[in-house]
Specification:
Length: 462
């Protein structure tokens, strides 16, 4: 029989101490010690409520709150001792509180369980992180707007299937990402609503017999709602799954942006140049300048996906209510929060530093028959059915390919061989500027549209 190394809250039921291997395996302190601030904040609110309801005395509450504040200082100045035998941050703080305050500290856990306590801590943590993520995402969106505004007239070849398709404004391309990240912000905002629910007061799973005031606790901790079912309160991890889902989608968008920057900064594209401060070199090839930061964000996206799958897999077979499996919810959550916040911060700083090779972009948009659709539209505008106009333009492309020319490089006589509807004004219709500005349908790439979209976004994001 192994000697007990630390007194456990459940010692009354057990006759043998916990095996050291079990203590190490079940300990979560290296992960959940990051929740100390929220655990102390929640305990102070709980203590204040207990005193208000005369469940403990005002004098006991004062001693407990003072002790909790001193423990916070110890943790922050690095003098607090962590020990696997105490399992989690709740037991660490409680044990230290007993040492410093004495018998009064043993009353703090009245009317609560570690089940509703940890649910509270994680919700407080995620509420705070969501607010910071939403603010930083707004700053990133402002950076996108600034870059789009600065490069409003830059022309870029638009792609489908990674093949040059039609000319677009580079600013229009950036505004596509603005829309994507705006949806991300909305998802995080929605997630915040379902995170902002107080679980404390649910105790282990059935509620408590003490005359607690949950509304008062919610007010102290600035929760907008209290949970309606004590069983659901301690077993609900939907808000974590929802956050990780939103984070995964957001990282998809950063990964797509990263992929484009990786391609665009290659010698083959040469559309952009990533600043030296956001690139790395090769240990063997002196000429290399690698977009490693973009590649790492693209790679870390997979880790966020993995965190989502981990939580979904963990929760899918759990009966109600709390189960120890839920201890594993924090590491994936913390990891994804850190990756997402870092990705937003990096791109917010990177975007303004990118060099845009405007001439290379425009030259690329001038080649590859990106005006073929416009030739078809021109003919359709002259009365030719679009399918016939499409075939006519396709024949012209085939003819030009055989002669190593672009459509606008063919003579008027050559073009008229495909349709007598073609007149001298075809050349104006096939210019990049005309092709872009004619696409003025709502949401299209016309300059006036993009300027209006930027102006609207600037008003909304203030």
């Amino acid at each position: 029989m192994e000697t007990k190394t630390a007194k456990k809250p459940w010692d009354g039921r057990f006759t043998a101490g916990t095996d050291r291997l079990v203590e190490a395996f079940t300990s979560s302190i290296q992960t959940d010690k990051h929740l100390y601030l929220y655990d102390i904040k929640g305990s102070i609110a709980h203590c204040t409520m207990l005193a208000k309801q005369s469940i403990i005395t005002e004098d006991e509450a004062s001693k407990i709150i003072m002790g909790l504040k001193n423990i916070k200082k110890e943790i922050e100045n690095g003098t607090f001792l962590f020990d696997d035998s105490l399992e989690d941050i709740h037991m660490h703080i409680e044990a230290r509180l007993v040492q410093t305050v004495g018998q009064a500290a043993q009353k703090l856990h009245t009317a609560r369980s570690r089940n509703d306590q940890v649910a509270l801590d994680v919700r407080l943590y995620l509420k705070n992180e969501l607010l910071m993520i939403m603010e930083s995402l707004n700053q990133f969106k402002k950076t996108l707007l600034s870059l789009a505004k600065k490069n409003i007239d830059v022309i870029l070849p638009g792609y489908t299937h990674l093949q040059r398709a039609q000319p677009i404004l580079f600013s229009h391309h950036l505004m596509a990402y603005y829309e994507m990240f705006s949806r991300d912000w909305e998802r995080f905002h929605d997630c915040l609503k379902r995170t902002d629910v107080l679980p404390l007061g649910s105790a282990a799973l059935a509620g408590t017999t003490y005359p607690i005031d949950r509304d008062y606790t919610a007010k102290l901790l600035e929760f907008s709602k209290i949970s309606e079912n004590s069983i659901d309160s301690v077993s609900d991890r939907d808000f974590i799954m929802e956050f990780l889902s939103a984070a995964s989608i957001c990282m998809v968008h950063f990964s797509r942006l990263s992929e484009e920057f990786i391609l665009w900064s290659s010698y083959e594209f040469n559309f952009i140049e990533i600043p030296d401060s956001f690139a790395t070199g090769s240990s063997i090839m002196p000429q290399k300048k690698n977009p490693d930061i973009c590649e790492l964000i693209r790679g870390k996206t997979g880790r966020v996906f993995g965190d989502l799958i981990a939580i979904l897999s963990m929760m899918k077979s759990q009966p109600l209510a709390y189960n120890r499996d839920m201890q594993e919810d924090k590491e994936p959550l913390f990891n994804s929060v850190d990756i997402l916040k870092s990705s937003i911060a990096i791109y917010t700083k990177l975007l303004p530093e990118i060099k845009i090779n405007t001439k290379t972009m425009e030259q690329a948009a001038s080649k590859g028959f990106l005006n073929a659709t416009d030739l078809a539209d021109y003919l359709a505008g002259k009365g030719l059915p679009f399918r016939k106009a499409h075939a006519c333009a396709g024949n012209a492309v085939n003819y030009a390919l055989a002669r190593n020319k672009e459509l606008h490089e063919l003579s008027l006589d050559e073009l008229r061989d495909f349709s007598t509807l073609i007149k001298e004004d075809i050349y104006e219709a096939l210019t990049l500027k005309q092709m872009i500005n004619r696409r003025n349908s709502h949401g299209g790439t016309a300059t006036k549209n993009v300027k209006a979209a930027i102006k609207k976004a600037e008003k909304m994001i203030k």
